[in-house]
Each structure stands twice: as structure tokens, then as C-alpha cells.
């Protein structure tokens, strides 16, 4: 098939693949489609490429995976030529990288921006997905790839009185492009997850006074961010193939030290020394100090106590330090934050911390915010309250499969998918880093590349074998769903009220959303399924199916 460039006027034509989302997933999917000679168009609500990095422009936003890992590995020239400046890249640099990739591979000509997809439905007779945008345009394709991201649907603040607030308010996930100057203002930040922990130290530097409203303290590990040295970079670049290969088959999709040692099998002295050593390295390596931190509550408690001690060392006021120590969930079972100056921020005279567990927010008032205990005056409010994760971005689109079945209905009690890649009853639909795939538990770049490559290999296989319809089988899907639950039950993750289990969204079923098994093992499973002629999938041609 000859690739045809999409123009606005092409909305009525039939593509091989309609891709929703122009972040890292959608861009790479487009690139792979072109390599296969398939016609493809990408639709995105944003004004340009970047996905999460396009929207999350709040002060302090940066990645929590090392820069040398958090980038595409598919093109040797690209990875050799691009220069990352810091250990953890700031949002602006990642966005420049995304823009560079779009330019380098001439991607934008097949991307339609300002095109928010509202529905996608499968026409069985025509073997066709019809994807409709808010503007009412319909884009048709034999295949539809949902590359919508895992954390792209911000949770809307639904506090009483918000509409009457006289000042500006912001959601970290929808930050104004022109930036915000908080100089001299009294500011409130609601939420202390990753977005809160990153933005709070930056906002504190500008604000006259910053009041942080915390419902649940979260665990954080130090970033020890620094400028990347030439030697550090060339050591990796000289061996980039091996570096990437390690990430591909690793537990979590990045180069980090794993552990095969139980926290029970070492003396107290050695245990502390090992925590200290990992702490000094910083980042997620702390989470794998012992192999059973995520599965054994006793070992986990040792990590939690160690982290509490570190908080107490950094925060001068013991009462504030206590308030910042997480005690209602095991270490790392809510997404661990990688912090830069977070705890020290509470030593500043212009920062105070309020406990929403003691005094919840009653309402936003015209002049600020009222808790059950007190009235506060603010010039601006920042909501760092997170996202309707993983299922949210998919269910925000009215997706209908065979027989008009709605995904919203099928997933009423939680997601059901095969490998987090495909859904029974929804032929020719693929979900990149969908629920029940490792996705957010790994380096997203590794997860994205693995999925996009698996999908494009699958499309190539179908072309070669004269198929044009693929659908996950019910049985394979059910087995995968059960397997997800079984793996989750061997971990401590279900114990936390986190977005991993949908607990942050009112009314959302409480189900573990990402696949919690090893990323490397998951890759092997996906590869084996493909090698066995896509075991568990039904492949056919639309003609024969008819
Ligand atoms: O969102 P969150 P986030 N009233 O859901 C609180 C990725 N990310 O945007 O814990 C009061 O983690 C909520 O309280 P509680 C990363 O995967 C990565 O910070 O539910 N408070 C919590 O404190 C991350 O995990 C990076 O009790 C309310 C906070 O708001 C994910 O995105 C940077 C509330 C929300 O925390 C999401 O992070 C940023 C309410 N009604 C994000 N509702 C990096 O790469 C919620 N909260 C570093």
C-alpha cells in the first residue's frame, strides 16, 4: 500500500491506521506505519506534539527517569546526536526533544492538531473504525491505535464555590503556555503527589506565602539531580546498544540496580548500609534495595522507617516533619516521588502545611478557601490533584466495538484487556500502554517502544498473511485479567488508596490498573504470543469473516 499524506480535507478518506494521540506513542506509531507503507493519520487535541509534556508545563516539571533512559532508542543517529543536559530532564528540554523528533522524521504533516477525538466506533461490515473529532470530522481507518497516554485526563477540581473564586486557579496538568508569575502572591497548592512535590519548591521561591494542603503525605526519594558530565554521557553513548538492551529486558524498563536479596536475609547493620548506599544514588533504585520491599510488609516497613528518618533530618520543625511522614500506605505503593528540595521547602518562613485529614476543604470562597476549621485568603490556587489514570483517557472517548458494544459498559467494573494491548469485542483496536500492561510501572519510553513495535510487527504479519482483522479472544483476555489480579495479590500495591487502583476518582472501580509483573518477562510473553501466530487472538480477513 502506498502511503498517502493526510490533509485536513482527507477527513473523509480511508486510512490504514488512525492513531489517536501525538505524544511519544503516537509519533513512533506513525513512524512505524510509514515504514510499513501504511497510510496513517494522527489526531490530537493539543496544538502540537508532546502529549504529557505538551500539557504539564507547571514550574518544576521534569521526568523521574534518567534522561539517557527516557528517550527513543529506535534510531541510533538520534540517540547519539541528541544531548541531554541534566540527569533528570526538565519538561522544556523533553518538549524540545519531542519537537526535534517530529522535525527530524517529518511527522507533523500526518498529524492533525486541535482535533480532540470524542468517539470511535467499529463498522463490522466495512471492517472500519470511524473516529470522530469534537469538530465533527470523521476519520476512517482499518485499524485504530489509541496512543492516548496513561495520565492525560486531568481530574477536574469539583470543590463547591470554585466558579466564584476571584483569582486565577490552575491545574498542574493543564498549565498555561505563557507561564505563571506568583511573585508577591498568596498561593495555595492542593495535592502532594509528584506534580505537587515538584511544583511546591518552585512556587515557594516566588510566592509571598505558600500554603500547601495535604491530604496524604507521599514518600519521596532524592533526585540528586545534576548537569550531565561529558564522561558520564560518553560512557553510555559508547555502549548505547547494550544500555538499551539491558532496559528492554529489565524488571522496570530502565538501567537501574535490581536486587535479588530479601530484606530479611541481612543484618540490621547491612540493611541500613544498603538503604544509605541506594539513597546516596537516589531515584527509584531505593525501591529495589531489597527484592521484597514491594511484597513483604515487614521489609517494606524497614524502608518506610528509613524514609521517615530522612524526612526528620531534612525538616526542622518536628511537627511538620511528622505530618510529612506517610503512615497510611506501604512505601512505594503510591507512585514514589523523586524530589528536589521538597522537604527543605518546609523550612522556609513563607511556607506552611495544612492537614486536610484533620480539616477537609469545605469550599472554595471568592477570596480563597475554607476548611472545616478556618478561612484562608489566596490570590491564586494550584490544584495538583492528578489524573483519571489509565482507563480515564480511553473511556473519555466513546469507543464502540462489535455490535455497538461500548467500552464504557464492558469496563464498568474495571478494565478487561489482553496484554493491555487489545480488547475482545473491539477488533483492529490497539491500546499503547493500555491498562493491564506494565506501562506506568516502568520507564514509559521502554513500554511505549515495546508496544508500538509489537503492534507494527503484528500489522506487518497481517499484511504478509492476507489478514485485515485481528481480535483478542475472550478466553485469552479472561486469563490475562485473572493473571493481572493474581500478580497484584502477591504485592502490597492493593493496600494503598492510589491512582494505580483508581482510588483517587470518585465512583471508579477499585482494580489494579497497570500490570505488576516484570517488564522483561512481559516482553517475553508478548514475543512468544506473536511467535506462535498471535496465540489467543483471532486473525481473519474481513471478506472471509463476512
Ligand atoms: O497526581 P497524584 P500527580 N482534595 O494523583 C491530592 C506522574 N507524574 O499529578 O493522596 C485534596 O499522584 C491527592 O491526595 P490523596 C506520576 O506517575 C510524573 O501528582 O489522594 N487533595 C494527592 O496528594 C504521578 O504519580 C512526574 O489523598 C486531593 C494529589 O492530590 C502521576 O503522574 C511528575 C484531592 C494528587 O497526586 C500523577 O501525579 C508529575 C481532593 N479532592 C506526575 N484530590 C514525574 O515524572 C486529589 N488530591 C516526576
Shape category? globular
**Class by helix and strand content?**
alpha/beta
Q: List segments where confidence is low: pLDDT < 50 over at least 5 consecutive residues.
A: 1-8
Strand content: 15-25%
For the CA atoms, what is the radius of gyration?
24 Å
Distance between the termini: 23 Å
Give the count of helical stretches: 16
What percent of residues adopt helix (DSSP H or I)? 25-40%
Overall average residue pLDDT = 96
What characterizes the major β-sheet?
8 strands, mixed
Total count of strands: 20
Name every ligand kind in the structure: 3-acetylpyridine adenine dinucleotide
Question: What do you see in this structure?
Answer:
With 546 residues, the protein is an alpha/beta fold. Helix content is 31%, strand content 16%. It has helices at residues 24-36, 52-55, 76-81, 91-104, 194-206, 230-237, 240-249, 268-281, 297-314, 318-324, 392-395, 407-410, 444-464, 474-489, 519-531, 542-545; strands at residues 14-20, 40-43, 111-112, 117-123, 128-133, 138-146, 169-171, 186-190, 209-214, 220-222, 337-339, 351-355, 361-365, 368-371, 375-377, 380-383, 398-400, 429-431, 469-472, 537-540. A hairpin with a 4-residue loop joins strand 5 (128-133) and strand 6. The relative contact order is 0.14. Mean pLDDT is 96; it is low at 1-8. The site of 3-acetylpyridine adenine dinucleotide has 24 residues, from helix 5.
Amino acid at each position: 500500500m502506498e502511503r498517502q499524506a493526510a490533509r485536513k480535507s482527507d477527513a473523509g478518506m480511508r486510512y490504514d491506521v488512525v492513531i489517536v494521540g501525538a505524544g511519544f506513542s503516537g509519533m513512533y506509531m506513525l513512524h512505524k506505519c510509514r515504514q510499513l507503507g501504511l497510510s496513517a493519520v494522527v489526531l490530537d487535541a493539543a496544538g502540537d506534539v508532546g502529549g504529557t509534556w505538551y500539557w504539564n508545563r507547571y514550574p518544576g516539571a521534569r521526568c523521574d527517569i534518567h534522561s539517557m533512559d527516557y528517550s527513543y532508542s529506535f534510531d541510533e543517529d538520534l540517540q547519539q546526536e541528541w544531548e541531554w543536559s541534566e540527569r533528570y530532564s526538565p519538561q522544556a528540554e523533553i518538549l524540545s526533544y519531542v519537537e526535534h523528533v517530529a522535525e527530524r522524521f517529518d511527522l507533523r504533516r500526518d498529524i492533525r492538531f486541535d482535533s480532540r477525538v470524542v468517539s470511535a466506533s467499529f463498522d463490522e461490515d466495512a471492517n472500519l473504525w470511524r473516529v470522530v473529532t469534537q469538530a465533527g470530522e470523521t476519520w476512517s481507518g482499518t485499524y485504530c491505535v489509541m496512543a492516548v497516554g496513561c495520565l492525560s485526563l486531568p481530574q477536574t477540581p469539583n470543590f463547591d464555590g470554585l466558579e466564584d473564586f476571584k483569582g486565577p486557579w490552575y491545574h498542574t496538568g493543564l498549565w498555561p503556555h505563557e507561564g505563571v508569575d506568583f511573585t508577591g502572591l498568596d498561593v495555595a497548592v492542593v495535592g502532594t503527589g509528584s506534580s505537587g512535590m515538584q511544583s511546591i519548591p518552585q512556587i515557594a521561591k516566588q510566592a509571598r506565602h505558600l500554603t500547601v494542603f495535604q491530604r496524604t503525605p507521599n514518600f519521596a526519594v532524592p533526585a540528586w539531580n545534576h548537569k550531565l558530565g561529558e564522561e558520564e554521557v560518553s560512557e553510555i553513548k559508547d555502549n548505547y546498544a547494550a544500555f538499551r538492551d539491558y532496559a528492554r529486558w529489565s524488571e522496570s524498563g530502565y538501567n537501574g540496580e535490581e536486587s535479588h536479596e530479601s530484606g530479611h536475609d541481612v543484618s540490621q547493620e547491612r540493611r541500613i548500609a544498603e538503604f544509605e548506599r541506594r539513597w546516596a544514588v537516589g531515584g527509584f533504585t531505593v525501591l529495589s534495595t531489597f527484592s521484597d520491599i514491594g511484597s513483604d510488609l515487614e521489609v517494606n516497613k524497614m524502608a518506610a522507617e528509613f524514609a521517615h528518618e530522612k524526612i526528620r533530618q531534612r525538616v526542622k520543625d518536628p511537627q511538620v516533619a511528622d505530618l510529612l511522614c506517610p503512615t497510611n500506605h506501604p512505601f512505594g505503593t503510591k507512585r514514589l516521588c523523586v524530589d528536589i528540595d521538597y522537604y527543605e521547602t518546609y523550612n522556609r518562613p513563607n511556607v506552611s502545611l495544612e492537614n486536610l485529614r484533620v480539616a477537609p476543604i469545605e469550599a472554595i470562597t471568592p477570596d480563597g478557601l475554607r476548611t472545616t476549621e478556618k478561612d484562608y485568603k489566596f490570590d491564586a490556587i494550584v490544584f495538583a490533584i492528578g489524573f483519571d489514570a489509565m482507563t480515564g483517557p480511553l473511556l473519555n472517548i466513546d469507543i464502540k466495538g462489535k455490535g455497538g458494544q461500548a467500552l464504557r459498559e464492558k469496563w464498568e467494573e474495571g478494565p478487561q484487556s489482553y496484554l493491555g494491548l487489545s480488547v475482545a469485542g473491539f477488533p483492529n483496536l490497539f491500546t499503547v500502554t493500555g491498562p493491564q500492561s506494565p506501562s506506568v510501572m516502568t520507564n514509559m519510553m521502554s513500554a511505549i517502544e515495546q508496544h508500538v513495535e509489537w503492534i507494527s510487527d503484528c500489522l506487518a504479519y497481517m499484511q504478509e498473511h492476507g489478514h485485515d482483522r485481528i481480535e483478542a479472544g475472550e478466553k485469552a483476555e479472561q486469563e490475562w485479567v485473572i493473571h493481572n489480579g493474581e500478580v497484584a495479590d502477591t504485592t502490597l500495591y492493593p493496600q494503598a488508596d492510589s491512582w494505580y487502583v483508581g482510588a483517587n476518582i470518585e465512583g471508579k472501580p477499585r482494580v489494579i490498573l497497570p500490570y505488576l509483573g516484570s517488564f522483561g518477562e512481559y516482553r517475553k510473553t508478548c514475543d512468544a504470543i506473536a511467535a506462535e501466530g498471535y496465540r489467543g487472538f483471532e486473525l481473519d480477513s474481513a471478506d472471509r469473516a463476512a
